[in-house]
């Protein structure tokens, strides 16, 4: 699993979003991700993170160990 | 259809105000993210029930489904999922976590 795979999944789920994905460690298992997406508007943090997890789906069930996640709704 | 693992989870979160489903125990967290949330709760002086999901694989899998949340730790306050490490850390830094605990009448610093 690499950064581009995660990024692609997220772009499909949140086409207009600002997405920043990167590796926390070079082991292919620790990633960070910042997303600002209009889909998050009106949702609390738990619901926002749940949307991201849903978009990543079975990727997370594989050997991904950690995804540091920051979500927000766009301010405009 | 009743699901025995879901019943087990509901029973724990209904009978404890604050529950942390984590890797390892509060005394010996076995993952940095679980350790972080443990420290935050200790800093706030909150007593909580720790559940080591590494000891029970059916619980570990069931909880992912129950919460629609694939990773650990998971913090529940008064039966409600508050979040994982990132959310808890953000809420602690902004003071929201302490405020939420006070609103729920849970003793903390």
Automatic annotation (TrEMBL), chain A:
Origin organism lineage: Bacteria, Pseudomonadati, Pseudomonadota, Alphaproteobacteria, Acetobacterales
Organism: Commensalibacter nepenthis
Stored SUPFAM superfamilies: BolA-like (SSF82657)
InterPro entries: BolA (IPR002634), BolA-like_sf (IPR036065), BolA/IbaG_stress_morph_reg (IPR050961)
Protein name per UniProt: BolA/IbaG family iron-sulfur metabolism protein
Homology family: Belongs to the BolA/IbaG family.
Gene3D superfamilies the record matches: BolA-like (3.30.300.90)
From TrEMBL, chain B:
Protein name stated in the entry: Glutaredoxin
NCBIfam families assigned to the protein according to its UniProt record, in alphabetical order: Grx4 family monothiol glutaredoxin (TIGR00365)
Family according to the record: Belongs to the glutaredoxin family. Monothiol subfamily.
Signal peptide from the UniProt entry: none
Cited InterPro entries: Glutaredoxin, GRX_PICOT-like, Monothiol_GRX, Monothiol_GRX-rel, Thioredoxin-like_sf
SUPFAM superfamilies per record: Thioredoxin-like
Pfam families: Glutaredoxin
Organism: Commensalibacter nepenthis
Designated gene of the protein: grxD
Keywords, in A-Z order: 2Fe-2S, Iron, Iron-sulfur, Metal-binding, Redox-active center
Membrane-traversing stretches: none
Domain named Glutaredoxin: residues: 18-82
Keyword Iron set for record: yes
